[in-house]
């Protein structure tokens, strides 16, 4: 391993593909709710694509200097199909860390998407490609390619720690991070919550949603309700 600030780790342990497949179709709010509403990125990191995007993959992490994408290029060459490259650019949006050319190359390598705590550019072309990109902002100002930066070390992205191999799920609502040690349990809990939410919607449609819990909660808090103003 090189010097701190320039470390590159070539590979990491990925979660079994059946677990990753299991998250396909599960929306980020459900996943976030079963993790105590804690492991979702800041709302500023959002899809630059047209509505309807949903992507799941293993995090390949990059920490860049906020103006530089050399290590993102290195990461693209190390990635395996299905990886999502998650980039900590310190939340700075003065320089785009990637654009359409990099998305074309990433797609050619089977990379599933990018998440950037920073800015990107070429928004329309990327959106037209349908390649999943989540970022804090968009700017025409380009990046340098000199370093420093690190690949596959623990990073912070959207105020959430991300380790190489964690599962990333991104959709129209934002990005959730599932720590790899919890991936199977969170999937099981997500499927249970998903079914419960579907049942609630069915009950609403049938006019049968039991609303007693609202008044029970207010009563338990000792809140008095007046009959009229
Ligand atoms: O110039 C860059 O490094 C980023 C960019 O716009 C592209 O990938 O198209
Ligand atoms: Mg470009």
UniProtKB/TrEMBL annotation:
Record's catalysed reaction(s): 4-hydroxy-4-methyl-2-oxoglutarate = 2 pyruvate; oxaloacetate + H(+) = pyruvate + CO2
Residue positions binding Mg(2+): 122
Enzyme class: lyase
Classification via PANTHER family: 4-HYDROXY-4-METHYL-2-OXOGLUTARATE ALDOLASE 3-RELATED
EC number: 4.1.1.112, 4.1.3.17
Function: Catalyzes the aldol cleavage of 4-hydroxy-4-methyl-2-oxoglutarate (HMG) into 2 molecules of pyruvate. Also contains a secondary oxaloacetate (OAA) decarboxylase activity due to the common pyruvate enolate transition state formed following C-C bond cleavage in the retro-aldol and decarboxylation reactions.
Organism: Peribacillus saganii
Cofactor: Mg(2+); a divalent metal cation
Pfam families according to UniProt: RraA-like
Name of protein: Putative 4-hydroxy-4-methyl-2-oxoglutarate aldolase
Keyword flag Metal-binding: yes
């Amino acid at each position: 391993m090189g010097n701190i600030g320039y470390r590159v780790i070539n590979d990491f342990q990925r979660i079994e593909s059946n677990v990753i497949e299991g998250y396909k179709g599960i929306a980020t709010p459900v996943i976030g709710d079963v993790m105590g509403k804690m492991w979702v990125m800041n709302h500023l990191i959002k899809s630059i694509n047209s509505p309807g995007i949903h992507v799941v993959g293993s995090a390949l992490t990059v920490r860049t200097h906020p103006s530089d994408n050399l290590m993102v290029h290195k990461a693209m060459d190390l990635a395996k199909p299905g990886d999502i490259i998650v980039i900590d650019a310190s939340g700075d949006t003065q320089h785009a860390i990637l654009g359409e050319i990099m998305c074309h190359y990433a797609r050619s390598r089977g990379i599933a998407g990018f998440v950037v705590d920073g800015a990107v550019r070429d928004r329309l072309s990327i959106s037209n490609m349908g390649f999943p990109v989540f970022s804090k902002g968009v700017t025409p100002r380009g990046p340098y390619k000199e370093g420093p930066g690190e690949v596959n070390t623990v990073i912070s992205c959207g105020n959430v720690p991300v380790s190489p191999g964690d599962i990333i799920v991104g959709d129209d609502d934002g990005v959730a991070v599932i720590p790899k040690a919890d991936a199977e349990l969170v999937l099981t809990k997500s499927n249970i919550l998903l079914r419960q939410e579907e049942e609630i919607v069915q009950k609403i449609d049938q006019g049968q949603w039991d609303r007693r819990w609202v008044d029970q909660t207010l009563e338990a808090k000792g809140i008095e309700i007046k009959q009229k103003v």
